[in-house]
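Example record for the data management plan.
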Amino acid sequence: MNFRNVLAASLVLALALFSESPSMHAAQKNPLEPGAADKDAPKEFTTTKSGLKYRVLRKSDGLKPTARDTVKVHYKGWLDGGKVFDQSYGADGDSIEFPLSGVIKGWTEGMQHVGEGGMIELEIPYELGYGERGAPPTIPGKSTLHFIVELLEVTPAPKPIEPGAVDKDAPEKFTTTPSGLKYRIRRKSSGTMPTAEDTVKVHYRGWFDDGQTFDSSYERGTPIEFPLNGVIKGWTEGMQLVGKGGMIELEIPYNLAYGERGRPGIPPKSTLHFLVELLEVK
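Corresponding structural encoding:
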């Protein structure tokens, strides 16, 4: 698997729901090598409270991204031994563009230290990368990741929005299906109910048992669209229980989500909770 397909492993819903890579796409043809560093670029790294190490190789007064913004970059990534596992540089490569909230923690934090037009080097401990499991076969377990990244462009994120209204008589209790999925309709609708073969457009928020939100399209201000047969089983089943224009809450046991192993951003045996508004059925 190319690193471009695993970089966004912490874009939990996009990578959690989809079997393929998240919404990260080629942006522009790239140079063969990274651009020039400043002559006075620091030799030493700065270490943040999280354990991330970084040094700005080319300063810039350009816009610095926030965690919610979308960035366009060129990058090169290597392991401790110097082995390059992926890069956007080279004759056949392209720059990439992705939401900064949708990548490993070390990137989300690190890229906020450089301005548009600048270049940064990151040393990311495994806790801020792919954890103890890694992302086989490209990233071994407990890997420290090294990157040089040129920030080409910052696209500010849309303003966050809030979920729509819930019915006054919406049930408080959940219904449990034979599979073990729990759901409750928060806003009824007589609109079209999707089948597993349909594509849906939704707004959603996802959280763990302790209430911690792991991803939210409301915070990004942009809904997502995906084929319903390309997501975790709990979503495929659950979204067929609500009509277009409706809202549903899902409580998905781990066997209908990421199982005993979990995946980056999702601990093993995690029960996942979602509030989902079904905007469109195609």
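Summary line stored alongside the record: The radius of gyration is 20 Å.
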